[in-house]
């Protein structure tokens, strides 16, 4: 079984992390889910997250959310 994370399979990790982050944004900023998801996808944090070599996919949703807010 191949358990290596590569740029080609990284996308499998992202939806759950984005979902958690969006929930936190909705709660903290009082915005809608669609707006929260859009904000995440347009962020520098997401640009880093979607690149395997940054290893940001190792971070949990809370750490990613903190990165997003900084």
Give a concise summary.
With 70 residues, this protein is mainly alpha-helical.
Fill in the keyword field for this structure.
single chain; 70 residues; mainly alpha; 4 helices
Give the % helix: 55-70%
Number of extended strands = 0
Radius of gyration, taken over Cα atoms and rounded to an integer in Å: 12 Å
Which spans of ≥5 residues are poorly predicted at pLDDT below 50? none
Percent of sequence in beta strands: under 5%
Major β-sheet profile? none
Can you give the mean pLDDT? 94
Structural class: mainly alpha
Terminal CA distance reads 38 Å
The coarse silhouette is elongated
How many separate structural domains?
1
Q: What string, H for helix and E for strand, traces the elements in order?
A: HHHH
Compute the number of helices. 4
Please describe what this structure looks like.
The chain is mainly alpha-helical and 70 residues long. The chain has one domain (10-69). 57% of the residues lie in helices and 0% in strands. The chain has helices spanning 14-29, 33-41, 44-49, 61-69. Helix 1 (14-29) crosses helix 4. The longest helix is centred in the N-terminal third of the chain and has 16 residues, at 14-29. The radius of gyration is 12 Å and the shape is elongated.
